[in-house]
Automatic annotation (TrEMBL):
Protein keywords: Membrane, Signal, Transmembrane, Transmembrane helix
Bias type Basic and acidic residues, positions: 490-531
Residue ranges of the TM segments: 21-42
Pfam families: Pur_ac_phosph_N
Superkingdom of the source species: Bacteria
Identification of the protein by name: Fibronectin type III domain-containing protein
Start and end residues of each Purple acid phosphatase N-terminal domain: 50-142
């Protein structure tokens, strides 16, 4: 059953038809007045926990995932918030039956629902469960389905890595609160991976999921190396258009999480890969996956943003890891050829922003360190590594070491930094990245969400001997202050004839590497959701 899409723009209808997204539905007993009713009774109702709102395949979708105490039929009830009656759900609501599966982590169950057919600029309220055992009511708001928007990118909360789950959770909750208080209209929360320290430790997951904002804003999950070692990651997060084929999975599908996925949100095609899978030809497989997605869906977006965990231009402890050395050879030329604009990464618990990189080289030798504005030119890509969002662990910036990798030496303009990076920063304070998506630019800003004071677990516990700018020589700057900000002017014919499917040099329209620098649906394999879409939704 599908929603009446007459209120959707033609482009969105086209994308949803192309998607053909579907989800296995259990517990559906009847269709009444266009709505769905699930067989959930008070005597066998499950209690639910770990509810998290996830990104959908389009602007008009959200995914809700959770844990449950029993494998009974469970549902998500959704209603425009304006139709709540004294905070209570009305008699007639739209109900989405859930996919529920046995949970390999804790012996319980996990469920998920794809909510489809949402209208723009509307507040919705939802609850999970069934008769006799409902979760609290949570709310989220959709925005315009086209035009400008902001999203927030968070690096490695890694709850538990300090050894103190409560302190790590406090820092993470404070960053989420600070970021969304400052940016209440942000539309997506994008993960850099490593939500927790130990893949299947539910006390860590509970602390990660504690902020209620994770039930109000969609979390676009990314898998990190600390998430991959068990099944909890994919049981907590159902992601759209996910391909869990062996090359993208890195090992035993029975015991590990993994997969690559993608979605389109307004003018951005987001592609998220499982960078834990890198051996035995996986890099070629990832490139093939990205290529296929860009060719199939690049026309639906102006910008392409890649997200994965392992930062190839790491400024700190992971700078010369073997997988990074390999990927500095494998990835950059492919990303340039495909018209990628921005690459968001984690893993290194420090912040860096690259120069404009084309085919694995600095595109314009004259681009200055810390330039406030850059023009990407054909094939130009910006790579960003996010610092810790929780304060659970920081890595210090390392000096370039050509004895470990002769191809990752110092920047001639700033020899303390690696050649690829315009900015490298570590202050041992929590930060997050804000990305503003505009019609003619991307604005990338790294912002402080904490100071040297608590909550800042690694500093509180004495795991860091200094805190603040200039290796602690200067006082910590206030919450909300800017570490780094850059305006990225993408190539002005950025794939508008084929969205960069092939080298941009083939149609550079007079731009060259010296231009503008010097400023100081959708179904993918493995996506088995059948989206229930009652027509009463739009009433």
């Amino acid at each position: 059953m599908k929603f009446d899409n007459r209120t959707q723009s033609p482009g969105l209808v086209r994308r949803r038809v192309a998607m053909g997204a579907t989800a296995a539905v259990i517990g559906m007993t009847a269709v009444l007045g266009g709505g769905l009713t699930a067989a959930v009774h008070a005597d066998n109702a499950a209690t639910v926990s770990g509810i998290v709102l996830g990104v959908g395949a389009t602007e008009s979708q959200r995914v809700v995932s959770w844990y449950a105490s029993a494998g009974t039929a469970q549902v998500v009830e959704v209603v425009p918030t304006s139709k709540l009656v004294k905070g209570q759900f009305p008699k007639h609501t739209t109900t989405f039956p859930a996919t529920v599966a046995a949970n390999t982590v804790n012996g319980g169950y996990n469920g998920h629902v794809t909510i489809d057919g949402l209208k723009k600029n509307t507040a919705y309220s939802y609850r999970v469960g069934g008769a006799g055992a409902w979760s609290p009511t949570y709310s989220f708001r959709t925005r315009d389905f086209k035009g400008d928007f902001d999203f927030l990118f968070f690096g490695d909360p890694q709850i538990g890595s300090s050894g103190d789950v409560a302190k790590d959770g406090a820092g993470w909750a404070d960053t989420v609160n600070v970021a969304l208080t400052a940016n209440p209209k942000a539309e997506l929360l994008v993960s850099g991976g490593d939500q927790v320290e130990t893949a299947n430790t539910e006390t860590q997951w509970n602390a990660f999921l504690a902020p209620d904002k994770l039930r109000q804003y969609p979390w676009a999950a990314t898998i990190g190396n600390h998430d991959v070692g068990g099944k909890a990651y994919e049981q907590h997060f159902w992601t759209p258009n996910t391909d869990r084929s062996a090359p993208f999975y890195n090992g035993d599908a029975a015991t590990r999480s993994g997969g690559d996925y993608w979605y389109v949100y307004k003018d951005v095609l987001f592609i998220d890969i499982n960078s834990n899978a890198y051996a035995t030809g996986a890099d070629a497989a990832h490139i093939g996956y990205i290529t296929n997605v860009v060719k199939a869906h690049g026309r639906d977006a102006k910008y392409t943003v890649l997200v994965y965990h392992h930062s190839i231009y790491s400024p700190a402890s992971h700078a010369n890891d073997g997988d990074n050395q390999l990927r500095r050879q494998d990835f950059p030329t492919a990303f340039s050829n495909l018209g990628v604009d921005l690459v968001l990464q984690g893993h290194d618990h420090s912040y860096s922003r690259s120069y404009v990189i084309k085919n694995g080289q600095k595109a314009n030798k004259a681009e200055r360190p810390g330039a406030a504005e850059v023009a990407a030119g054909p094939g130009g890509v910006i790579y960003v590594t996010a610092n810790s969002a929780s304060g659970s662990k920081y890595y210090d910036i390392t000096a370039p070491d050509v004895t470990k990798d002769p191809n990752y030496g110092p920047d001639p303009l700033n020899p303390k930094s690696h050649w690829a990076n315009s900015v490298e920063n570590q202050e041992h304070v929590r930060t997050y990245v804000k990305v503003q998506v505009r019609g003619d630019k991307l604005v990338v800003e790294n912002l402080r969400s904490g100071t040297c004071a608590a909550p800042n677990a690694a500093v509180e516990l004495g795991q860091e001997s200094w805190c603040g700018p200039d290796s602690g020589a200067s006082a910590a700057k206030p919450v909300g202050s800017t570490v780094d900000k850059v305006v990225v002017r993408p190539y002005d014919d950025h794939g508008h004839d084929d969205h960069g499917h092939g080298d941009h040099d083939d149609h550079d329209h007079g731009h060259d590497d010296d231009h503008g620098h010097g400023h100081d649906d959708h179904g993918g394999k493995g996506h088995d959701d059948k989206v229930a879409t009652p027509a009463s939704w739009l009433q």
